[in-house]
Amino acid sequence: MKILVTGGAGFIGSHTVVELHNAGYETVLVDNFSNSEKSAITGIETIIGQSVTLYEGDISEAATWDTLFTEQKIDGIIHFAANKAVGESVANPLKYYKNNISATVLMLQKMLEYGVNNLVFSSSCTVYGQPDSLPVTENSAVQPAMSPYGNTKQVCEEIIKDTVNSEKNFHAISLRYFNPIGAHDSVLIGELPLGVPANLVPFLTQSVAGLRGPLAVFGNDYPTPDGTAIRDYIHVVDLAKAHVSALDLLLKQAEGKYYDFFNIGTGQGSSVLDVINAFEEATGLKVDYSIQPRRDGDVVAVYADCTKSNEVLGWKAEKTLTEALGDAWNWQKVLVEKSK
């Protein structure tokens, strides 16, 4: 089976390409490198021991899809390519609606045109907004989005579901990620945030590496045990494996319509201070941090109930928060060495 991975050079995409290879799938990657680097391709190839098929192109352009589908026999798509920073989406919503929603609509149009009918969509726990109760199950209400980024994930899920319902034979799964962190244990691939990181862990590792000032903790007055925001942090390799499980399930479907969605997390909520403490435990290093005002668009707390993904996908997160933070630090050390 040949699987197209959009955003295949990105943080989650690159790790998923490795896990697809480990599971026996052939991959084709497309990326415009607007938020990734070509060094990720070298890392993937070193890990899997062979070259990858890469198309450098923009999936918001029809010509990119026509080239892909005429040159490759694609059996399914894992769709990662999107802008993903909550803060940036608040400041520049139209960029997010164009790049995240319009490109997904074009992808679906081209899938139908070329007869490709299996899709795994990279969604997000942001679709739950600020949940009424925790942990979040798949039966939890989809709340009004807290940011334009979150809204794009909600809208794309609805578009995909409507597409499935309108077709005789189309299969799709949306994976609602919680917070991916860590890096491959080979330290050949990992997160490569451009500019100032929008996510906690890469900012933390850059701060400890001396590349930035103290870690900014946005808000210590939330109604949580220690006053800082709570999230569900999942190792990126565990997350990558969830995509393989989702793809396996899609490809087992008989002719007809199929759509479902799954929470992909650990089931454990960790506060910002919990993450700082776990990092110090994993590395023996001290984290210097300062308390800053809350950010627009941030929710108080969200973490997953993963019963459905455990039982239906046959998938479960295996790595601990401490392991993930240790891998993130090892990756950061490699980046520091490369920059010398």
Automatic annotation (TrEMBL):
Assembly and interaction partners: Homodimer.
UniProt-recorded name of the protein: UDP-glucose 4-epimerase
Molecular functions per Gene Ontology: UDP-glucose 4-epimerase activity
Species of the source: Arcicella rigui
Domain named NAD(P)-binding: residues: 4-325
Catalytic reaction annotation: UDP-alpha-D-glucose = UDP-alpha-D-galactose
Gene designation: galE
Cofactor: NAD(+)
Annotated Gene3D superfamilies: NAD(P)-binding Rossmann-like Domain, UDP-galactose 4-epimerase, domain 1
